[in-house]
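Each field is set out underneath.
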Amino acid sequence: MNKINTAVIGVGSLGQHHARILSQHENSNFIGVVDASQERGKQIAAACKSAYFSSVDDIIGKVNAVVIAVPTPYHYDIAKKLLDAGVHCLVEKPITINVEHADELINIAKEKKLILQVGHIERFNPAFTAAAPYIKDPKFIEAVRVGPYDPRMKHIGVVLDLMIHDLDVILTIVKSKVLSVESYGAKVFSEHEDRAKARIRFENGCVADISINRVSFERNRKMMVFQNDSFVNIDYAAKTAAVYARKNDVRDLQSMTDIEIKNLEVGTKEQLFYELDHFLSCIKDNKIPMITGENGRDALKLAHDVLKNMQY
C-alpha cells in the first residue's frame, strides 16, 4: 500500500501535534487540517505544508484516514460521517459522550471493515509499555493524576477528561469484570467535578484506587501496581518505570536489601508518535488496533458508572 492520505480535524493544543507528526511520518501523505477557526487552521496547515479546509465535507474523497481531535461533544457526528464515507478514524478520548453513540460507531466500523482506534494515549506511553510485561496479576492498584485547571475542558468533568485514561489502563491490566464502584467528587472551578476519587473492586479480588484533580499547580501522573511477588511503579510524566521484587535467592525477606530494584529501559520517542504509527500500521496491514472502539466504549461505560455513583 502506498502512503495513506491523512488529515486532522481540530488543531487545538493536541490536534496541532497530531498534524505535526502526520505531516512528517513516512507512511502519511498529509492532506491538511479542518478547524472551525480559519485563522488557526491556516496557521497549522501552513506549518505542516498542507491545506486548510473549513468543513469535514471538503476532505471526503481526499483522505483515507483522519484524527478527530475536536471537543468530545462533536466526536460522534464527525466520526459517523467519516466512517459512513469509508474513512478510517482515530478518535480522541473519550470516544463519545454516551455509550449508545460509541456502540453505533463500532458497528459502522465493523460493517465497513474500517479501523476505529481511540486515543487512550497512556497505553503508548513508553513507561507503560516498558512496565506492562511485568504486570501479571494485580492485587491493588493506586493511580494519581493531577494538573492545573484548563478552561478549554470545562465542557466535561475530570472523570471524562482525565480519569478515563486510568480507567482504560486498569481495565487492560486487570482483565476482570467490575464488581462495584464507589466515588466522591467536588466542583471547584466548573459546573462539573474538578476533583474525584474512585475505588473500583473487581470480581477477581483486585482493588483500584484512583485520585484525580485538575485544580493543582503541580503535574503528577503515576500508577503503582502491587502484586503478590512484586511492585511496579510507573511515572507517566517522567516516562520512567521500575519493578521492585525479592531477589531470586531470597525466600524470607529480612530487609530492603533483599529486594531488587529494576529500572526499566523505556522508548525515547513521544507517545503520540507511537500512537499514530500504530494507527497507520493497522491500516496498512489490516490489523486490529491495540485500542479498539470496544476498549474506548468500555472505559466510557466505567467512567459513567463512576459519575453515576459519585457523592458530592
In short: The mean pLDDT is 95.
